[in-house]
Design brief:
This protein is mainly alpha-helical and about 350 residues long. The chain has a domain of about 140 residues: Serine Threonine Protein Phosphatase 5, Tetratricopeptide repeat. Helices cover about 65% and strands about 0% of the residues. The chain is elongated, with a radius of gyration of 32 Å. The two termini are about 55 Å apart. Pfam families: BACK, BTB. This is BACK domain-containing protein. InterPro entries: BACK, BTB/POZ_dom, SKP1/BTB/POZ_sf.
Length: about 350
């Protein structure tokens, strides 16, 4: 600007508004001596000034400093600056470092400063440690809460990138389900509920298969006509008529208080409790849907009177989980998730395997 016909060439002094005094001193040192002192505190300002004054050799010095000083606390910032100034090799190096040290990176303060797209990019990085998904969840919650009002709307988009099947029962219960951001979101609760049902289904199928084999072996030793006995046993359960809806055919006309009394009623007969709870659930849904506009607000209270622990997994999957009244209520889903935790074995979650 001083050697061409710009206004600065006619002035006795030039004002550098975007460059601080200490940064300008570092630039001048390098221009006159080919040396300057770079530190964690000044390297980013020196890099910006080097780009402003078009000093490629100093830019390269800053880049080398980045590579030598990279750690879990600064790698995100280094990646950001390298990307801004088109240092492609250094961007790649930073991303490789981040992938290998993802757990530490997710805990860094710089992570909280990232924009949404950068957070998504980090969450998509592959890592073979199961605990990484726990770190991802905690970091997503922390990132959202850091600017809660502005970021809350993005929480579900990020939650979708967490692989819940890789999380332990304990973590799902104590952290994921306990997180208010999850419990307040219908979509998040649906994802959690679906994951739990999937894990329980896998565990139950394996357990029931092995259990049935042992059950058959015992029966064959006692009953000569075991096949007919098993068929009768199954038929008796499926066609049990001991339990009757307390309200009878007119229960759809009941007021909410009467319906709640009905759902709390018990039978002294020896009946299959799962069939009782299924019938109560169906009655609660039917009563609500009979006048959906007026009664929908009561459904959560009615659902709390049903004991999900007694419902079969098939009924939960085929009926309850598909019911819109459940899927539209975080309170109902939370109750259902709580009951499912008692069914899921501790070690059913998946483990990654290296390719």
């Amino acid at each position: 600007m001083f050697t061409v016909k710009m206004k600065e060439s006619y002035l006795n002094e030039g004002i550098m508004k975007d460059v601080s005094g200490p940064t300008m001193a570092s630039i001048l040192d390098f221009m006159y001596t080919s040396n300057t002192i770079l530190t964690h505190d000044n390297v980013y300002d020196v890099l910006e000034a080097s780009e402003y004054f078009l000093i490629p050799t100093l830019i390269e010095c800053c880049a080398k400093f980045f590579m030598k000083s990279m750690n879990g606390e600064n790698c995100l910032k280094i990646r950001s600056y390298s990307n801004r100034y088109n240092m492609d090799d250094h961007v790649q190096a930073a991303e490789t470092f981040i992938s290998k040290n993802l757990r530490a990176v997710l805990k860094s303060f710089d992570f909280l400063q990232l924009n949404l797209d950068d957070v998504k990019a980090l969450l998509k990085l592959e890592n073979y440690e199961n605990l990484i998904d726990e770190g991802k969840f905690k970091s997503v919650a922390d990132w959202t809460k850091y600017e809660n009002d502005a970021r809350r709307k993005h929480f579900y988009d990020l939650f979708q990138l967490i692989q819940l099947d890789y999380l332990s029962k304990t973590f799902l219960k104590d952290f994921v389900h306990a997180e208010k951001l999850v419990r307040d979101s219908v979509d998040c609760m649906n994802k959690l509920l679906t994951s739990l049902i999937s894990q329980i289904s896998v565990a139950s199928a394996s357990k029931e298969k092995s259990g049935m084999k042992e059950h058959c072996r015992k029966i064959l030793k006692v009953f000569p006509n075991a096949v007919n006995f098993l068929k009768h046993q199954s038929y008796s359960k499926q066609n049990s008529t001991d339990y009757q809806s307390p309200g009878g055919a007119n229960f759809l006309q009941f007021g909410v208080d009467d319906v709640m009394v009905m759902l709390q009623s018990k039978s002294d007969k020896k009946i299959h409790q799962d069939l009782v709870e299924e019938d109560k659930y169906k009655n609660a849904v039917a009563w609500t849907r009979h006048n959906l506009t007026e009664r929908k607000k009561h459904f959560s209270d009615l659902f709390h009177l049903i004991q999900p622990n007694y419902l079969s997994m098939k009924f939960l999957i085929d009926v309850v989980h598909k019911e819109e009244l459940i899927g539209q209520s975080t309170d109902c889903m939370s109750l259902l998730v709580t009951s499912l935790f008692s069914r899921i074995p501790e070690l059913t979650y998946k483990k990654r395997k290296r390719e």
